[in-house]
Specification:
The protein is of the alpha/beta class. It has 4 helices and 12 strands, in the order H-H-E-H-E-E-E-E-E-E-E-H-E-E-E-E. Helix 2 runs parallel beside helix 3. The longest helix is centred in the N-terminal third of the chain and has 20 residues, at 26-45. Belongs to the 5-formyltetrahydrofolate cyclo-ligase family.
């Protein structure tokens, strides 16, 4: 059998993990999301960061509402992406309430208030979703490259801490990485917050 290309390997992993994620019950998704939010918040309490970019979770993703509301209560500016599907890019907006979101591309809740556009902001922390992750910093997204493009264009101006967010079921032994794929600094699941470079667990 011919050796699979990197793209074929990625697609195989993507489909396998998506199927496993579908089998997670609603109750477990809620419980595991709450546990992961506690790990993030405990870590944030020890930092001096003032801004964070987070995603609005799709139904099967780890939900970050707990972290978002905690940041608002603790004077940490919250930013969220608004996608441009035709170009596979996004812009970020400051968000001060869940009421500032509306259904956008692929049914994702996105910011819409134009006056909250934050073109020149590079948040201190970026929490990214994904289909699968490994413990070496590898991330496998949905294949469109939104975060890869944004971080490539903006991440050199001010190096943010990049945290992948997923359930333990979404962790695999190895994700093949390409030159344009950016590595995670940390990874949060319902079990732990992994500091990937030193393998320290918070």
């Amino acid at each position: 059998m011919d050796k699979l290309t990197v793209q074929e390997q990625k697609q195989t992993i993507r489909e396998q993990v998506k199927q496993a994620r579908k089998r997670v019950t609603v109750a477990n998704r809620l419980s595991w999301s709450n546990a992961a939010n506690i790990h993030i918040i405990d870590w944030l309490r020890e930092q001096t960061y003032t801004s964070i970019l987070v995603y609005s979770a799709l139904p099967l993703e780890l939900n970050l509402t707990g972290t978002i509301t905690w940041c608002w209560r603790n004077a940490i500016n919250v930013y969220m992406p608004k996608t441009n599907p035709s170009e596979h890019t996004f812009t970020i907006y400051e968000v001060g309430s869940l009421d500032e979101l509306q259904s956008g591309a692929m049914g994702i809740q996105e910011p819409y208030l134009q006056q909250r556009l934050a073109n020149n902001v590079i948040p201190d922390v970026i929490i990214v979703p994904g289909v699968a992750f490994d413990r070496q910093g590898g991330r496998l997204g949905y294949g469109a490259g939104y975060y890869d493009r944004w971080i490539a264009a903006n991440g050199q101006k001010h190096k943010p801490v990049i945290i992948g967010a997923a359930f333990e079921q979404q962790l695999v032994s190895h994700i093949p990485m390409e030159e344009h794929d950016f590595p995670m600094d940390m990874l949060v699941t319902e079990y732990k917050l992994y500091h990937l470079q030193s393998e320290k667990v918070y």
